[in-house]
Amino acid sequence: MCTPTPHNGAKKGDIAKTVLMSGDPLRAKYIAEKYFEDVVQYNTIRGMYGYTGRYKGVRVSVQGHGMGIPSIGIYTYELYNFYDVKNIIRIGSAGALDENLKIGDIVVGIGASTNSNYGKQYKLEGTLSHIASYSILKELTSTADDLNIQLNVGNILSEDVFYGDLDTLRNWARMGILAVEMEAAGLYMNAAAAGKNALCMVTISDCPFTGEAASAEFRQTKFNDMMKIALETAIKLK
Fold first, then answer.
1. 206 labelled catalytic
2. Which of 15, 128, 136, 191 is the most exposed place for a label (fewest CB within 10 A)?
3. Is 205 annotated as a binding residue?
């Protein structure tokens, strides 16, 4: 397919090989303005802002992907298959399912369980395990150690429903699921199908079982530890 696409106004070469992605396009805008030099905005279509700039001299892109697997499915498919992107790191928010997690804690999804039917398109006679790329995970955990930032690494849940049933979430928690979000499994499936790399890292923004929740402004701008880890990892990736 030719570029630009119906969802992305970028031309070939406008987007870096490594892209940081967030559900909220304003978080992408915040990262570009706070951390990048020589910033160029390559997308405004549907308000899904995308930017390319330099972080410590290395070319990196950041873009919004919207909410849910269908939305991230479109944007990441195009990035991998039409724009030659190699690595995508999702930097998002999540609800804590593990009782030991608190608002502001960082979780890395080495695996992403899901109740979505997105995987049906692959016509597999079984259940696909949706996992992160080790090449990114290795660099990211090393980066977090260097920055002295604690990570919680494990399985997360990619839900299709934002206002989900709490008893259902408790069942997932009993199986060792750390946190719930809405996109990682679709990202991991698209990466696997394209032969590319992906990882989802989230900051806990709410606790469904207690009702505690961070503000919208906190979600947009206060995830700086997660952003720093992602940026420092991005400049190490090939």
1. yes
2. 128
3. yes
**Domain 18-234, CATH:** 3.40.50.1580
Domain limits, the chain: 18-234
pTM of the model: 0.96
Instruction: Give the list of residues 6+ apart from residue 138 with CB closer than 8 angstroms, or none.
Output: none
pLDDT of residue 220: 67
The Cα–Cα gap between 76 and 20 comes to 11
Residue 65 marked in a binding site: no
Residue 60 in tokens: 């990196």
- Marked catalytic residue, from 14, 24, 105, 206: 206
Q: Is 129 annotated as a binding residue?
A: no
How far are the Cα atoms of 140, 145, 228 from residue 148, in angstroms, in the given order? Answer: 12, 5, 12
**Token pair for residue 102?**
């608190």
pLDDT at residue 1 in the model: 66
